[in-house]
């Protein structure tokens, strides 16, 4: 594994995509995984060119682990794989949205999504009310 | 505007949240904006402690613009505001999911979401088929 530089490593990623991808200084872009049919936002991971290439060509969501500094095929150890349904770049080409079919839990905690457990504010009546904490009750909402 | 450092700037953000927030080296966390009722992923922005605090306390989604190096209250110039419905951290506390009620278009291009225009792969039958390009047809899907 080489030292990460600002120049993307050589990758077989489609040059037309590589040319417009806008990477952070660490060569990565955030990748949002969304359950394709329910719309649940499952998790956010990071991709370099090679991870995006593998995601596009293998049908399995593949990330770059910043903590382990290695490729991470989601589900390879847990069985909780993400089958890729579609991949889109955003308008600035600096974020990836991957619609997937998630097998089992997306989160390593066993929760369906990585955003289930830590709701810090909820103003949706009836939604998340049980786990909501009001983090700013002293300031009234503006413009509502 | 001071120089960005790895130490988060003083902010009235709830200390209990600030203590567990894991920021990138630029002091930011990615923030996913999702339409609360339809589940559409609208855009991804960036928040520092103060932007998260403002998002939690004003009811309006507020980001830190990396390009302009300034706070950005979504919709202040376009009118396309995001009314905050709920805010959650992920399991690692390094990503924010904000469920919002988006007025009008989330994207500066006028598209409803920032991910509408640039679908680079679609394998969802009937979905996005018109704009799909097959970016990796030479490699068959694995494990499907």
UniProtKB/TrEMBL annotation, chains A, B:
Record-listed Zn(2+) binding positions: 91, 107, 114
Q: Which cofactor does it need?
A: Mg(2+); Zn(2+)
Which InterPro entries would you find in this protein's record? PRA-CH, PRib_AMP_CycHydrolase_dom, PRib_AMP_CycHydrolase_sf
Grouped into one coarse class, the protein's main location is cytoplasm
Q: What is its EC number?
A: 3.5.4.19
Name where it's found.
Answer: Cytoplasm
Sequence ranges assigned to domain Phosphoribosyl-AMP cyclohydrolase in this UniProt record: 43-115
Gene Ontology molecular function terms on file: phosphoribosyl-AMP cyclohydrolase activity
Q: How is the cofactor bound?
A: Binds 1 Mg(2+) ion per subunit. Binds 1 zinc ion per subunit.
Catalytic activity annotation: 1-(5-phospho-beta-D-ribosyl)-5'-AMP + H2O = 1-(5-phospho-beta-D-ribosyl)-5-[(5-phospho-beta-D-ribosylamino)methylideneamino]imidazole-4-carboxamide
Binding residues annotated for Mg(2+), in chain numbering: 90, 92, 94
Q: What pathway annotation does it carry?
A: Amino-acid biosynthesis; L-histidine biosynthesis; L-histidine from 5-phospho-alpha-D-ribose 1-diphosphate: step 3/9
**So what family is this one in?**
Belongs to the PRA-CH family.
Function field: Catalyzes the hydrolysis of the adenine ring of phosphoribosyl-AMP.
Tell me what this protein is called: Phosphoribosyl-AMP cyclohydrolase
Protein source organism: Streptomyces ureilyticus
| Gene field | hisI
């Amino acid at each position: 594994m080489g030292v990460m530089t600002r120049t993307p490593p050589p990758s077989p990623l489609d040059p037309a995509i590589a040319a417009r991808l806008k990477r952070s200084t660490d060569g990565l872009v955030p990748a949002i995984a969304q359950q394709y049919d329910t719309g649940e936002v499952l998790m956010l991971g990071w991709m370099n060119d090679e991870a995006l290439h593998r995601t596009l060509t293998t049908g399995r969501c593949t990330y770059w682990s910043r903590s382990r500094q290695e490729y991470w095929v989601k589900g390879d150890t847990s069985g909780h794989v993400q089958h890729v349904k579609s991949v889109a770049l955003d308008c600035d080409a600096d974020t990836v949205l991957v619609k997937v079919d998630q097998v089992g839990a997306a989160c390593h905690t066993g929760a369906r999504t990585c955003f289930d457990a830590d709701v810090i504010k909820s103003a949706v009546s009836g939604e998340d009310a049980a786990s909501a904490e009001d983090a700013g009750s002293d300031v009234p909402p503006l413009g509502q």
